[in-house]
Specification:
The complex is a heterodimer of chains A (115) and B (116). Chain A is 0% helix and 50% strand. In chain A, strands 2, 5, 6, 10, 11 and 12 form a 6-stranded mixed β-sheet that branches. In chain A, strands 3-9-8-7 form a 4-stranded antiparallel β-sheet, with no helix packed on it. Chain A has no helices and 12 strands. Chain A starts with a strand and ends with a strand. Chain B has 116 residues and is mainly beta. In chain B, strands 2, 4, 5, 6, 9, 10 and 11 form a 7-stranded mixed β-sheet that branches. Chain B has a 4-stranded antiparallel β-sheet with strand order 1-3-8-7, with no helix packed on it. Chain B starts with a strand and ends with a strand. Classes of the chains: A mainly beta (115), B mainly beta (116). At the A-B interface, strand 5, strand 6, strand 10 and strand 11 of A face strand 4, strand 5, strand 9 and strand 10 of B.
Chain lengths: 115, 116
């Protein structure tokens, strides 16, 4: 069964610091990759997604992620975080052989940005 | 688009009672998914529908759980004889499936279940 690992459970940064959240998955075939964000008191929202093509994907609010197939990774980055980026971030994967396209999520990373 | 909606947002029940949750997907989305999220974990897949057909169920979905999507629009998730271990956030998501390369799931706010 596929699995997704997010290595950092809690991250604390000051505003304007750069962010990189790690995500690794276990499936060896063709994958679709997602980052979702959950702001305090809100529901899961799609931040960005990768299906094919350019492995550097740009999402909303200045976030980007890079798919590195050889490393089974899809790390999320932002050059300069803001206090409003305080949230929980989830990496999720599905694979092309999965007809149901069910998402397998990582355990999440809680980001706190200090003003 | 109005987003995915779920009702109720919170449910407190006593052990042994039955509960039912409702999910209204984004209009015209043909796929509907149920996930469960416990504290400190990512969501875990429970079941999904394509239109009215329930196509897959996770092993997490015990016999006490049943889901329906009778007309291919809204869905209900019922838990019978609730147990304290059922306490969790139940999330619904929907997507418009044309092919695997475009299938993106959008999530509702969830129903938080507390079993006393």
């Amino acid at each position: 069964a596929q699995s997704v690992s997010q290595h950092n459970h809690h991250v604390i940064l000051s505003e304007a610091a750069s962010l990189e959240l790690g995500c690794n998955y276990s499936y060896g075939g063709t994958v679709n990759l997602f980052w979702y964000v959950q702001y305090p008191g809100q529901h899961l929202q799609l931040l960005l997604k990768y299906f094919s093509g350019d492995p550097l994907v740009k999402g909303i609010k200045g976030f980007e992620a890079e798919f590195i197939k050889s490393k089974f990774s899809f790390n999320l980055r932002k050059p300069s975080v803001q206090w409003s980026d305080t949230a929980e971030y989830f990496c999720a994967v599905t694979h092309s052989n999965n007809a149901g396209n069910m998402l397998t999520f990582g355990g999440g990373t809680r980001l706190m940005v200090k003003p | 688009d109005t987003g995915v909606s779920q009702n109720p947002r919170h449910k407190i029940t006593k052990r042994g009672q039955n509960v039912t949750f409702r999910c209204d997907p984004i209009s015209e989305h043909n796929r509907l998914y149920w996930y469960r999220q416990t504290l400190g974990q990512g969501p875990e897949f429970l079941t999904y529908f394509q239109n009215e057909a329930q196509l897959e169920k996770s092993r997490l979905l015990s016999d006490r759980f049943s889901a329906e999507r009778p007309k291919g629009s809204f869905s209900t998730l019922e838990i019978q004889r609730t147990e304290q271990g059922d306490s969790a956030m139940y999330l619904c998501a929907s997507s418009l499936r044309r092919d695997a390369s475009t299938d993106t799931q959008y999530f509702g706010p969830g129903t938080r279940l507390t079993v006393l």
